[in-house]
């Protein structure tokens, strides 16, 4: 296979998307906050926010920008272009869920003390978890569409 600038962008975008979706999968599979006590939830959630709250959104923006570049490069191939557009829209949906649903809850939880969480901590926890599952579904579908677009782009 000949290495081209398009191949390079595809590889980098796929790597970044895999890191984002893989992180979401790991949180979904390994972090079920509904079984934690309030103190454990606060400590674990605050640690995750400190470690991921900047990195994953930046990677997500890089994925969206990369998909936009790939869509531009595929502008004369309608089927491939639409595959990239679908992938991009799904990733934008995941990013919007993160920005407007999960991150506001993260901001609230970061103000809590593990020894004295808010009275409605379980309600906010459940809301965050539901939104996490929704964004994971959108991002996972976006990655599938991205893979389909890349494979279609190579034929």
Write the layout of secondary structure elements.
Blueprint: H1 5-30, H2 38-52, H3 55-73, H4 78-110, H5 121-153
- The rough form would be described as elongated
Radius of gyration, taken over Cα atoms and rounded to an integer in Å:
18 Å
Low-confidence stretches are none
Please, what is the average pLDDT?
95
How many separate domains? Answer: 1
SSE topology string: HHHHH
Biggest β-sheet description:
none
How much helix is in the residues? Answer: over 70%
Structural class: mainly alpha
State the distance separating the first and last CA atoms: 12 Å
Oligomeric description of these chains: single chain
Total helical segments: 5
Strand content: under 5%
Number of strands: 0
Report on the architecture of this protein:
The protein is mainly α. Helices cover 81% and strands 0% of the residues. Helix 1 (5-30) runs antiparallel to helix 3 (55-73), helix 3 runs antiparallel to helix 4 (78-110) and helix 4 (78-110) runs antiparallel to helix 5. The longest helix is centred in the middle third of the chain and has 33 residues, at 78-110. The chain starts with a helix and ends with a helix.
In summary, what is this structure?
With 155 residues, this protein is an all-alpha fold. It contains five helices and no strands. Helix 3 (55-73) runs antiparallel to helix 4 and helix 4 runs antiparallel to helix 5.
